[in-house]
Amino acid sequence: MAKGVPHFFKDGKAHGPDGMGAYHKMPDGTLHSGKTHTKSSKRLYHLNELSKTVQDKIKKKKKDGKRPKSRNRKKT
Predict the structure, then answer these.
(1) Position 68 in a domain
(2) Residue 49, in any domain of the structure
(3) pLDDT tens-digit profile of 2-14?
(4) What confidence tens digit (pLDDT) does each residue in 61-75 have?
(5) What do you get for the CA distance between the two ends of the chain, in Å?
(6) 4-11 contact pairs (CB < 8 A, 24+)
(7) Does residue 32 sit within a domain?
(8) Total domains, the chain
(9) 61 domain residue, yes or no
(10) pTM
(11) Smallest Cα–Cα separation from 33: which of 4, 19, 42?
(12) Which end of the chain is more exposed for a tag (fewer CB within 10 A), N or C?
């Protein structure tokens, strides 16, 4: 599993801003939220591991979202 790839909870909610919250890998290879394991740690998933319904929901949300304006654009 590659670093820099967004992570999601099972319901499709992104883990942290843009899915880049702190996480750790369990001995069985699964990813969980938080830098270290606690009682409140939850399983994380990559987009392709989620159900088709949830994947479609995430993709639609990205498509419908407004793109941020560039801050480097010169004003004339």
Answers:
(1) no
(2) yes
(3) 677 899 999 999 9
(4) 877 765 555 555 555
(5) 45
(6) 5/46, 6/46, 6/47, 7/31, 7/44, 7/45, 7/46, 8/44, 8/45, 8/46, 8/47, 8/50, 8/54, 8/58, 9/33, 9/42, 9/43, 9/44, 9/45, 10/43, 10/45, 10/50, 10/54, 11/54
(7) yes
(8) 1
(9) no
(10) 0.73
(11) 42
(12) C
